Amino acid sequence: xxxxxxxxxxxxxxxxxxxxxxxxxxxxxxxxxxxxxxxxxxxxxxxxxxxxxxxxxxxxxxxxxxxxxxxxxxxxxxxxxxxxxxxxxxxxxxxxxxxxxxxxxxxxxxxxxxxxxxxxxxxxxxxxxxxxxxxxxxxxxxxxxxxxxxxxxxxxxxxxxxxxxxxxxxxxxxxxxxxxxxxxxxxxxxxxxxxxxxxxxxxxxxxxxxxxxxxxxxxxxxxxxxxxxxxxxxxxxxxxxxxxxxxxxxxxxxxxxxxxxxxxxxxxxxxxxxxxxxxxxxxxxxxxxxxxxxxxxxxxxxxxxxxxxxxxxxxxxxxxxxxxxxxxxxxxxxxxxxxxxxxxxxxxxxxxxxxxxxxx
Length: 360
Known about the structure:
Layout: H1 2-55, H2 60-91, H3 95-103, H4 114-120, H5 122-141, H6 151-160, H7 166-181, H8 185-208, H9 215-220, H10 232-256, H11 264-289, H12 291-294, H13 297-315, H14 323-359
Helix pairs in contact: 1-10, 1-11, 1-13, 1-14, 2-3, 2-10, 2-11, 5-7, 5-8, 5-10, 5-13, 7-8, 8-10, 13-14
């Protein structure tokens, strides 16, 4: 019942989206909307885990901002407007022309259609998103931690992290490798560098302003003062960081959706509304239930899934990778981390019970 409480609005909005799909195109449209929604949730499950961990540091006001204003940006900005803007920028067509082109629902394999133009823009999208997510993964995995999941690998990598700026070296090396085999090397290199700059700026500015003393927010939320929650500028840049992170996760889904249907209305209903809303609900569930503390390996599994997605994005610059592979790899890491967390918790509970018996 607790879980249902967190997902009631997602389920209600999803039913509305499915009904809209039915009135728009019948049962065939409903099927496509549901498939797109499932695909987005599968691809973005690790996104929800990371979102929840970042939101834990933010004040209640900024948590609500992410879950209200942020969802509008996620649904309409990243899943609807962003693909249109990308095509407009890369083709030089006006926004109105791009909208008309999208509503024509042309075959993505046919030159001159919206889906074809979006596919042509994939290398720079993949370079930006791949570099951003790879930095996120490396900054996590190169940090020494008391709790490790894949200890045989994470402990050595944690020690390697003592090498200054190693994350940048690895990311730039991966970007140069992708650039060397790309059809448009300068475009890929430029997009990747922008991804790196965005990661450094958004993350760095959040840390710079993480002082915890913004008068306006503290006055509005006296309960969070002195408890280490981000407010003011620090929370604002964390909010921006989460939006860019969400964008990076949505790249593969937005492009992959056109392999299922070329209809932007169905993509908006399935990918944008159902998928994005459920990802936000998962984020709230993890945050409110303390799931990440209860299952400590979920953090690790999510970041390994992010590393896999980043690698896939960079590889996809020169060779297409089916979305089902991306989704399955991410889910495999998350499920494995969840199961091993349960095993660890049971083992520690037995050890604690044994220790109590001995002391008694």
